[in-house]
Amino acid sequence: MSLDGAYEDDNIFAKILRGEIPCHRIMEDDAVLAFMDAFPQSPGHCLVVPKSPARNLFDIAPDALSALITRVQTVGAAVRSALDPDGVVIMQFNGAPAGQTVFHLHFHIIPRYDGRNFAGHGQSSRGDDAELAEQARKIAAALRG
Ligand code: 5GP
């Protein structure tokens, strides 16, 4: 998948945004949806996606990107409050050669814990739904303060 070209609205995140497939939702507002990654690289791995139909970082208007990155900071802070990680990885891939697998722009928020393994990108297993639901609930509660 090249960096340029048309946005394709049959990608998984477009379907999640339209409510066609389920997710463990953390928050939603006019600009973004945040939800748990179904294949967490570390416990608490979540995603923030813009509502704008953007394939990657180079395909979004600056004001929508500003709104997105401020939500990444806010959700990341809630992840810190809720899960008390020792570190937080924020990552984002552009194009298949860079590791992108879902072609709707998204930021990963991945808590890291001292002494605990971190699965490589694309090498994780499907998460337990009850655990994902509980993590989403805790992060959402931290967002509400
Ligand atoms: P990318 O590889 O494009 O940076 O990240 C795509 C992410 O989407 C991966 O971390 C992958 O685990 C996650 N993912 C793939 N399919 C689903 C799904 O159906 N639901 C959710 N919540 N996450 C998914």
Poorly predicted runs: none
CATH top-level class: Alpha Beta
Strand portion, in percent?
15-25%
Element-by-element helix/strand order: HEEEHEEH
Strand arrangement in the largest pleated sheet: 1-2-3-5-4
- Overall spatial form: globular
Question: Do you know the CATH topology?
Answer: HIT family, subunit A
Backbone structural class:
alpha+beta
How many β-strands, per DSSP?
5
Rg from alpha-carbon coordinates? 14 Å
Number of helices: 3
Bound molecules: guanosine-5'-monophosphate
- Assign a percent range to the helix content: 25-40%
Alpha-carbon distance between the termini?
40 Å
Question: Which CATH architecture would you pick?
Answer: 2-Layer Sandwich
CATH level 4 superfamily = HIT-like
Please give a handful of descriptors for the protein shown:
alpha+beta; HIT family, subunit A; 145 residues; single chain; binds guanosine-5'-monophosphate; 3 helices
Describe the secondary-structure layout.
Layout: H1 12-17, E1 25-28, E2 32-36, E3 46-50, H2 62-83, E4 87-91, E5 107-112, H3 129-144
Antiparallel strand pairs: 1-2, 2-3, 3-5, 4-5
Helix pairs in contact: 2-3
The chain binds guanosine-5'-monophosphate.
Please explain how this structure is put together.
This protein has 145 residues and is an alpha+beta fold. It has a single domain, classed as HIT-like (HIT family, subunit A, 2-Layer Sandwich), CATH 3.30.428.10. The protein is built from three helices and five strands. It has helices at 12-17, 62-83, 129-144; strands at residues 25-28, 32-36, 46-50, 87-91, 107-112. Strands 1-2-3-5-4 form a five-stranded antiparallel β-sheet. A hairpin with a 3-residue loop joins strand 1 and strand 2. Helix 2 packs across helix 3 (129-144). Residues 12, 23, 35-39, 93, 99-102 line the site of guanosine-5'-monophosphate (5GP).
